[in-house]
Write a structure and sequence with these properties.
The protein is mainly beta. The protein has one domain: Jelly Rolls (Sandwich). The chain is 11% helix and 42% strand. Strands 3, 4, 6, 7, 8 and 10 form a 6-stranded antiparallel beta sheet that branches. A 5-stranded antiparallel beta sheet has the order 1-2-11-5-9, with no helix packed on it.
């Protein structure tokens, strides 16, 4: 009985991590590329109010824009040396050993911050069952303006104890700039291909 009582808090921690992560995965048929682990990856589906992309959280200094009939997120630096981040969790299905992240990005007016790594990037943090960060995947980043939209693809292995991946498009402590991001697709791939 004592062993059972001690195991309850760990179970609750796992459940508290899993429930919000599962919510974003209940809509895979509507996602861009039906295998994407992220909700509505094309960002075209509006929420019930029609004011934001379905399945994605609101964030300060992030807007849901439309241009030539296409929707995307725009992260805009509000003040030098601040961070603008859009945050979403993806639950990693059991047995998945590798992932591919593909997105379209456009960067304009970027002035990096006081360090060279203060730029536009997508932060990728793996989480374990307890919700603790276990590893960081290589970060796709932009250190200067792009010539219009560019597509970035990143393939990486999943750590053995990871159950979720935080995906965070970010303007990381830049002095100035805008980071547009669209078609954010996260798919399982064969680890042997890496």
């Amino acid at each position: 009985m004592i062993l059972r009582l001690r195991s309850v808090p760990a179970a609750f921690r796992r459940l508290s991590l899993a429930l919000p992560l599962c919510a974003g995965l209940c809509l895979p048929a509507l996602a861009f590329g039906s295998d994407s682990l992220l909700p509505h990856s094309s960002l075209e589906e509006p929420n019930g109010a029609g004011s934001w992309a379905q399945g994605w959280p609101n964030a300060k200094n992030v807007t849901w824009e439309q241009e030539d009939g296409n929707h995307f997120f725009r992260l805009k630096s509000a003040a030098p040396n601040t961070q603008v981040t859009l945050y979403v969790n993806a639950l990693i299905p059991r047995g998945v050993q590798a992932l591919e992240l593909t997105f379209r990005g456009r960067v304009t007016g970027l002035e990096r911050g006081s360090e060279n790594w203060h730029d536009a990037r997508v932060i990728l943090n793996f989480k374990d069952e307890a919700g603790k960060k276990t590893a960081v995947a290589r970060l796709p980043y932009f250190s200067k303006d792009t010539d219009g939209w560019v597509t970035k693809t990143l393939r990486f292995k999943v750590p053995e104890n990871a159950v979720a991946l935080e995906v965070m498009p970010t303007l990381f402590r830049v002095s100035h700039g805008e980071f547009d991001i669209d078609d954010i697709v996260l798919t399982p791939i064969d680890a042997a291909s890496l």
